[in-house]
């Protein structure tokens, strides 16, 4: 049965296989991001300072996610290539080690980040209301970091063996649970009803998130322990470290991790530059980030699906199918992002008004930002489609080179000149995102054509 399941992605229409694998992932992530938008909408009802505080914490929190990026990216190539070779025991061992090793790393990160959170906040804001919102939201999120990392691993394991439906179920449960809990935990009375709530404010939003993450991790792990899925583990081996695999979990995805770190540092520097334009601009950027994340979900789903098929194709020594999969993912992704960009260009004010209806200035700032940045998602479709061959093959250095070129050699210097030297309007800061995306695409296409990924195996 497992052999047949593995062969499914190596036969038939590439488009059909890509869509069948990507669609559940896209749906699951769309539900997740829909929750994020609803979450930001509720937080926006508290105050612009609350939105700014959550935005600042979320930007800093992505530093921790670099660790998840390193191990998670490594696990994609390890699990998918092992599964493509029909090596069931190694597939299980890779899943087990990803769970164990990532949880251990998360515990260490949790301890460190909880210590530095408050001092780090002072770098971004002196506003006590903004700081308090960030801390109220942040500490509990940090405490549940190991559960969050483990939940990601469960979802990745299922996708790598070609089962995208179970992660979709898990993510839909998380999103629905979040949406239900948010207003109950945040407000004294659920808005629009007479239902009493807990009145926990921003802390309630974070609590809703960690509750849903915990519940869905339990559901996902129960799927695995049922022994009725393609992902199987031996519980005893969860308590042992395998140095050979753990080393690969660090080294294969290390370029991705460094790239993610550098990208997140760009986010931190960008946030610092944005703070010069005031709290309203920070709040608008926070909402814009959530909206971009929501629109980005189809690309993420297609990239994950494409990486899985590429990894299995390389394990199966079918290079032609790997290339065709990446091209198809690029076509689908760019077309979808073009449609999204058209919608945003037509209705930016209406979209922003959903989140900060009482702030005309914030709406105006966000409207301009969306019209400038969103068309860049079309370029991101090219980047994610062709870049999926690197995740699938385990040759991840091109992501790092692209990020350094686009973000550090181009975007950061341009923002410094715009903000500190020329003192231009914030619109010019948004333009730097488009320029950086274009440079990244050029670098990714260069390494794709170079072809080193074609020979890489893990």
TrEMBL record:
It is a multi-pass membrane protein. It comes from the Bacteria. Pfam families: MatE. One of its GO terms (biological process) is monoatomic ion transport. InterPro entries: MATE_fam, MATE_MdtK, MdtK-like. It is found in: Cell membrane. GO terms for cellular component: plasma membrane. GO terms for molecular function: antiporter activity; xenobiotic transmembrane transporter activity. The chain crosses the membrane at residues 18-35, 55-79, 99-117, 137-155, 167-186, 198-225, 261-279, 291-310, 331-352, 372-392, 399-422, 428-448. CDD domains: MATE_NorM_like (cd13137). Keywords: Antiport, Cell membrane, Ion transport, Membrane, Transmembrane, Transmembrane helix, Transport. Belongs to the multi antimicrobial extrusion (MATE) (TC 2.A.66.1) family. Multidrug efflux pump. This is Probable multidrug resistance protein NorM. It comes from Alkaliphilus serpentinus. The lineage of its organism: Bacteria, Bacillati, Bacillota, Clostridia, Peptostreptococcales.
């Amino acid at each position: 049965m497992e052999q047949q399941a593995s062969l499914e992605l190596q036969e038939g229409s590439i488009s059909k296989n890509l869509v069948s694998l990507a669609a559940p992932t896209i749906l699951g992530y769309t539900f997740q991001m829909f929750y994020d938008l609803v979450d930001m909408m509720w937080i926006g009802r508290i105050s612009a300072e609350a939105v700014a505080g959550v935005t600042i914490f979320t930007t800093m929190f992505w530093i921790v996610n670099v660790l998840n990026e390193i191990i998670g990216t490594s696990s994609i190539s390890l699990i998918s290539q092992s599964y493509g070779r029909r090596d069931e025991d190694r597939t299980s061992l890779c899943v087990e080690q990803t769970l164990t090793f990532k949880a251990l790393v998360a515990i260490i990160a949790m301890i460190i980040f909880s210590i530095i959170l408050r001092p780090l906040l002072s770098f971004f804001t002196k506003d006590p209301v903004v700081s308090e919102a960030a801390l109220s939201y942040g500490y509990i999120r940090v405490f549940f970091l190991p559960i969050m990392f483990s939940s990601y691993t469960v979802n990745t394991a299922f996708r790598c063996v070609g089962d995208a439906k179970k992660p979709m179920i898990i993510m839909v449960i998380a999103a629905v649970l979040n949406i239900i809990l948010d207003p109950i935990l945040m407000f004294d009375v659920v808005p629009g009803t007479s239902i009493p709530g807990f009145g926990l404010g921003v802390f309630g939003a974070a609590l809703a998130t960690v509750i849903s993450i915990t519940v869905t991790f339990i559901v996902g792990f129960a799927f695995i322990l049922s022994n009725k899925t393609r992902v199987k583990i031996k519980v005893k081996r969860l308590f042992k470290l395998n140095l050979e695999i753990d080393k690969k979990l660090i080294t294969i995805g290390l370029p991705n991790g460094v790239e993610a770190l550098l990208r997140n540092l760009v986010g931190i520097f960008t946030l610092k530059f944005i703070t010069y334009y005031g709290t309203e601009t920070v709040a608008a950027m926070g909402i814009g980030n959530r909206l971009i994340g929501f629109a980005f979900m189809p690309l993420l789903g297609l990239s994950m699906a494409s990486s899985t098929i590429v990894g299995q194709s390389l394990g199966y020594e079918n290079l032609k199918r790997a290339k065709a999969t990446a091209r198809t993912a690029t076509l689908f992704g760019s077309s979808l992002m073009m449609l999204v960009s058209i919608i945003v260009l037509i209705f930016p004010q209406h979209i922003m008004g959903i989140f900060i209806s009482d702030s005309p200035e914030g709406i105006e700032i966000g409207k301009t930002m969306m019209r400038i940045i969103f068309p860049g998602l079309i370029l991101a479709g090219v980047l994610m489609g062709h870049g999926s061959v690197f995740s699938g093959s385990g040759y991840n250095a091109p992501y790092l080179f692209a990020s350094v070129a686009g973000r550090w050699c181009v975007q950061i210097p341009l923002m410094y000149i715009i903000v500190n030297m020329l003192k231009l309007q914030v619109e010019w800061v948004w333009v730097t995102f488009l320029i950086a995306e274009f440079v990244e695409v050029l670098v990714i296409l260069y390494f794709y054509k170079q072809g080193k990924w074609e020979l890489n195996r893990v």
